[in-house]
Amino acid sequence: MKFEAPTPIRDAFGKALVELGEKNPKVVALTADLADAIKVQWFAERYPDRFIQMGIAESDMMCVAAGLAMTGWIPFATTFAAFAAGLANMAVKIAVAYNGANVKIATSHGGVCVGADGATHQGIDDIALMRAIPGMTVVVPCDANEAYKATLAVAEHVGPVYLRLGRIATPIVDDKPFRIGKARVVREGGDVAIIACGSMVATALEAAKALEAKNVKATVVNMHTVKPLDVKTLVSVAGKCGAVVVAEEHSIIGGLGSAVSEALAANRPVPMEFVGVRDVFGESGEPAEILKKYGLCASDIQKAALKAIKRK
Amino acid sequence: MGEKEKGAAMATQIRRDVIRMISSAGHGHPGGALGAADILASLYSGGMRVKDEKGKSRDRLVLSNGHICAAWYSALSLAGCIDRKDLNGFRKLGSPLQGHPSRKHLPDWVETSTGPLGQGASVANGIALGLRMSGSDSKVFTLVGDGEMQEGLVWESLMTAPQYKLGNAVVFVLWNGLQIDGTVEKVKNLEPIADRLRAFGWETIEIDGHDIGAIQAVLDRPRKATGKPTAVVARTVMSKGVSFMENDRKWHGSCLSKEQADTALAELGKSASFSDYPAAGGSK
């Protein structure tokens, strides 16, 4: 399946899950009263015997998913990012990850663009929480095409996975092959490397185009897998450009920015700047307003890039 | 030897093992472990399908109150699942017998890792559902502590099992009435527990958790999906079998001195059909 126009990433997930249901009889889906919100409803209608409605009980859902995995099923447990990572944290950590259970945790509403629901429903620390759990793979697709491919890929991968999806329609970046743990360089330039995940990949490309007009050449890396991090690609672009900006729809604490910092500090230190939510709770508002207020626009990435270059 | 005597002999040996394992480790949780010995013995001396058999998958046991695992490890060793000698490693570095049961360290027998209270019955529901979806008639037994039921997640799981008609799920509530900070009644009351369980849709039975005949009667119930999960409120005595430890909450997580261990072993006496596990090789 190929998406041309901007499409909500969760729609692509829902369609991929239906395809998985047909291809793999072991795939089952669970949700905590959010079947429509995360588009698992399509799977539920097609495969009612393999759909498990857990009610508003996220920890219970993660534990039941772990039990299903223990008996050979491949469960996709779905809810919002903030609830999976925060509310159900202990269940994810022990019942899923410590057990090494083959559970795929798929969430929508990762980031600040959740409609106008406000801070309680914005997932801005989920990558940090999931990344800190030993053995957890963390994947953040950038557009509908990647979300579709990533959903198929995580079902094949053996072990716990956190698949983080945004809510709004994200511009289509491209339609290239996807492999867990292999970053994709989507634009090349020698002055600065912008490392991004999720919706911020498209924003980073927009920033790179604007920078080009100022004769600044930027590399853009789609770091769709936050863990395990593609350190090889990271060290290579950091070495080539000598300055790095990390952009993510997440807190600057603990997410992709921290992961990139840890890798580069140990392997190839260069000046770095961070574009993300700056240690504050969000609020209600239209996505474009929120992105502007919290410094998550292409213009913010441009500023960060120029600052990083200056520090070379 | 009848079924009841077989169970009693295993229960005595479990209690002896618990005393030796914890006193050798220098720490552990003897109170609940001694209190659960009769239930675990009933399960592992014939009450459950311990191992996979031809065409039949084993019954599963989930120890949600994972801290009492000394008794479980002993039962596993007496049923031939793990080596008796391995009990020497309990709670020690590099041992598969972790301080709380770990699937990572003992994958063949620990169906789900436990420790943080509240998760066991919930994972057990997933296992029960998964087994049923696979066409298996295996049962899933879960042991839950009384104080543990103060965790909200336990009640989420108590709603899930009746919703999905998990007739293959059996939960034993080990009710000794004590928890770390006091009596359950004082810390946060859970009575009338049987009424609460019934109201949640569970086939609920109350038994004396040390009456092996009564436990075996529960376990002998026919192996067919009744559509209703079973809850067994097992009234037990903390540290049952060792008089100076009984009903004293300090033994939830205290270790016995060598002298205390000897006194306890003398009171317990020898098992009618099992021997003590051999001490670690080359003991000085």
Summarize the structure.
By secondary structure, chain A is of the alpha/beta class. Chain A is built from 12 helices and 14 strands. A 7-stranded mixed β-sheet of chain A has the order 3-2-4-5-7-6-12, sandwiched between helices. In chain A, strands 9-11-10-13-14 form a 5-stranded mixed β-sheet, with helices on both faces. Chain A has a two-stranded antiparallel ribbon with strand order 1-8.
Q: Can you give a write-up of this model?
A:
The complex is a heterodimer of chains A (312) and B (284). Chain A contains 12 helices and 14 strands. Chain A is of the alpha/beta class and 312 residues long. Chain A has 2 domains: 164 residues, Rossmann fold, CATH 3.40.50.970; 127 residues, Rossmann fold (3-Layer(aba) Sandwich). In chain A, the strands form 3 sheets. Chain A has a 7-stranded mixed sheet with strand order 3-2-4-5-7-6-12, with helices on both faces. In chain A, helix 1 packs parallel to helix 7, helix 3 runs parallel beside helix 5 and helix 9 packs across helix 10. The longest helix of chain A is centred in the first third of the chain and has 15 residues. By secondary structure, chain B is an alpha/beta fold. Chain B is built from 10 helices and 7 strands. In chain B, the strands form 2 sheets. In chain B, strands 1-2-3-7-6 form a 5-stranded parallel sheet, sandwiched between helices. Chain B has a two-stranded antiparallel sheet with strand order 4-5. The mean pLDDT of chain B is 95. Classes of the chains: A alpha/beta (312), B alpha/beta (284). Chains A and B meet through helix 3 and helix 5 of A and helix 5 and helix 6 of B.
